[in-house]
Design a protein that fits this description.
The chain is mainly beta and about 375 residues long. The protein is built from one helix and 39 strands. The chain starts with a strand and ends with a strand.
Length: about 375
């Protein structure tokens, strides 16, 4: 018989000759069809509302659920295709799930629910981001790999989590106009993060200029990056070839990082703060390293004032020449050509001093040519 209404009459045909005593309607319903349960993995402490999906659920019926040998419990009607049940606590392992119209009238669904250890969080980091988002929050804990689904809620914004291993999962931070939002982590619909965890949003990092803006292809030039909004835990200089170098924060507007080796040419440098890159980049030029061959003259009086020409290679189109006598005394020099610069000697004691030159204020020649300071006659 298909679904629908049928009329039932109660008669006593033999005694009264087809006299009807009572008549009532009876409804035929489509049989229940159970297709799936979510989540199918549960923590051993229970405390989870599960969803049983199928067809032909009716609001007029009081359905029941049973987990293994646990006591039957009343289900909660949701829609024609869903009901909900509260999962009880039990020991780890697989249990069968049965659903029925009433206690004692349970149907075998063929579904199994797996009880497992509860996922737990030990640490979440970093808890800062730029307002444009894009950085990655790492959640460290245990028993993540058993989860079917994990979600990070940044305020009201839901972001699917990437479960990298049993102990690590990550979430990409969305953009926000707020200064701070609450972060909640859910595994298979259950909240596993502690209350009071917040992500703080900072202004996007910005670059204004670099000093120096050029250096040798061998790298290791210490570059100062000037800008703003450099507050963060993870600070990097990102070069256009994809190389990332750790940066040191001097102030919230000044970072320092050492250049990696590269070929001759111009590259760009971005700043990355807690995984968020600056919108704009600054240009940095790689040049062939300076080379000094000879000093003319190589001696002069201790009173100083001697004009010394340093002859060598790759002095380029200098924006400023620096001359260093000995280890500390730096004087301003003059660029003459790509093969020569001029330095004026300072006053000094009698003796030999190394003379090294730089065209970027940071990298000096390494030949350690000697200039002799002669005594007064």
């Amino acid at each position: 018989e298909g679904s629908g209404d049928a009329s039932i009459e109660v008669t006593n045909f033999l005694a009264t000759g087809n006299s009807t005593f009572d008549r009532f309607n009876y409804r035929y319903e489509e049989p229940l069809k159970i297709s799936s349960v979510y989540p199918s993995k549960l923590p051993i402490n229970g405390m989870r509302l599960i969803t049983i999906r199928g067809a032909n659920f009716l609001p007029t019926w009081k359905y029941v659920c049973q987990f293994g040998a646990k006591a039957e419990q009343e289900a909660i009607y949701a829609t024609k295709s869903e009901i909900h049940c509260h999962a009880p606590a039990t020991s780890a392992g697989n249990v069968t799930l049965r659903v029925g119209y009433s206690a004692g009238a349970l149907l075998s669904t063929g579904l199994v629910v797996s009880y497992q250890m509860q996922s737990m969080i030990d640490e979440i980091y970093p808890l800062t981001s730029s307002k444009s988002g894009g950085s990655v929050v790492t959640i460290q804990g245990r028993d993540f790999s058993t989860a079917e689904e994990a979600t990070c809620y940044f305020g009201r914004v839901a972001i699917p989590a990437n479960i990298a291993s049993n102990r690590i999962m990550t979430c990409e931070v969305p953009s926000s106009r707020e200064r701070s939002v609450q972060l909640e982590v859910l595994v298979d619909g259950a909240l596993i993060s502690q209350p009071g965890v917040n992500v703080t949003y900072n202004e996007d990092p910005r670059i204004a200029k670099l000093y120096p803006s050029a250096g040798p292809i061998e790298g290791n030039t210490l570059v100062s990056v000037f800008g703003s909004n450099f507050n963060g835990h993870s600070l990097l200089c990102v070069f256009s070839d994809g190389i990332k170098v750790s940066a040191l924060m001097v102030t919230s507007s000044v970072l320092m990082c050492a250049t990696p080796p590269a070929q001759v040419g111009v590259c760009t440098i971005l700043v990355e703060v807690d995984g968020c890159e600056s919108m704009a980049a600054a240009e940095y030029e790689y040049e062939t390293a300076l080379h000094a061959d000879i000093l003319v003259p190589s001696a002069g009086p201790v009173e100083g004032g001697t004009m010394v020409t340093v002859i060598g290679d790759w002095f380029g189109k200098s924006k400023g020449v620096s001359c260093k006598f000995g280890d500390y005394l730096v004087m301003r020099g003059e660029w003459i050509s790509v093969s020569s610069v001029a330095c004026v000697t300072p006053e000094s004691d009698v003796g030999n001093r190394t003379l090294e030159v730089s065209v970027n204020g940071a990298d000096y020649t390494q030949e350690a040519l000697l200039f002799s300071f002669m005594p007064r006659l």
